[in-house]
């Protein structure tokens, strides 16, 4: 997060810098060092076991040690996070593993976590730290399913365009740890799960696929998702779903001593960005914190709205900022060239936020007075080490000067490649938190000099 600077340094007159400052404020609001201490109870007497998973898990563990590290018995435990997201904890071990497609490091760490919590007694506290990315990092395949099977299904689901709640439903029924199974393994210990939400609606059962939350779905529901989005699966997965799953239903007595708390979510981060925008003299409208859908389709809708709002602005009006969060998806399809002919190259490097930004730039077609930013709050858009992108009226002009075709780049899902070439990438490094997508559109009044907010 150090590379992002601070929201307090907002330059008022530069649209791009203002948009970047709004993003910084959103990320800072969800920093685990800020939100975890406020939700920790007094350190209990007796043994405390800390386990967790997600892109923010190491930072959350660091926050726990900062509060509970002095005095009393030391905490112990293990968390798993994405490669490059580790923090220098003292007693809680941090393991790095692959995301978004799971690997053997994640599987080994998860088995160790299950062993740790199974050793907890009735007088112990198991503190579970869950954040976005936990679904891939917390991996314990169900009987009959291999890690390779899980990785294949995960990768295919992510490319299918299915909403995250449907993807997580499938993940639960292919697992021995998701869908309440981690909490059940810790019975009869007391379990407190602190969650940083990366899912629209902030349903604890969907955050990290709900390892401490009961779920009423069944394997037939998971099969229906696979069929609905035409996801081909290995034979072992089909056989495992036919045999049932270990997902724990709500009301199971093994969950009676478990409490789940969402401690950070998109809504609070949007509010933080709104405060910065208002301080810069802008009018603010929050479109919602749970917007889902195909990135390019949402971009088209937002472009239509932005153009309408710009046409309604009058001289002397304050700049308008439209904020939104949620999780967009990208369905990879056959690439098409600018004239509409298929070239079979829908294989570019992109992510939902960069694709939204590129689609928005195409839809706006250089319209004066409209600027935007779209980033993932974890600093990783798709599988690239890029948070997202910022656009303005000059984006397509720059594209022409670099001989880059934005329509072809969009059809190839090559938004990261496009912005790397023409400028506009937002690169933060790991932010060590994750409250999903952040989008802001800045609409200047007609009398504002271009480039001045």
CATH architecture call of the largest domain: 3-Layer(aba) Sandwich
| Stretches with pLDDT under 50, minimum 5 residues | 5-12, 335-345
The major sheet is characterized as:
6 strands, parallel
Average pLDDT score = 91
Instruction: Let me know the number of strands.
Output: 12
The CATH superfamily title of the largest domain: Glycerate kinase, MOFRL-like N-terminal domain
Structural class: alpha/beta
Strand order of the largest sheet: 3-2-1-4-5-6
Give helix and strand order, one letter per element, not per position: HHEHEEHEHHHHEHHEHEHEHEEHHHEE
Helix amount: 25-40%
Distance between the termini: 26 Å
How many structural domains? 2
Radius of gyration: 22 Å
Give the CATH topology of the largest domain: Rossmann fold
Just give the CATH class of the largest domain: Alpha Beta
Which shape, going by the Cα principal axes?
globular
Can you characterise this structure?
The protein has helices at residues 15-29, 32-35, 57-68, 104-118, 134-137, 147-160, 164-173, 181-186, 219-228, 235-243, 266-279, 295-312, 352-364, 395-401, 406-411, 415-422, and strands at 48-53, 76-82, 92-97, 125-130, 190-196, 258-264, 283-294, 320-329, 370-376, 388-391, 425-426, 437-443. It has 16 helices and 12 strands. It has 2 domains: 2-29 and 267-443, glycerate kinase, domain 1 (3-Layer(aba) Sandwich), CATH 3.40.1480.10; 32-264, 3-Layer(aba) Sandwich (Rossmann fold). The chain has a 6-stranded parallel sheet with strand order 3-2-1-4-5-6, sandwiched between helices. It has a 6-stranded mixed sheet with strand order 7-8-12-9-10-11, sandwiched between helices.
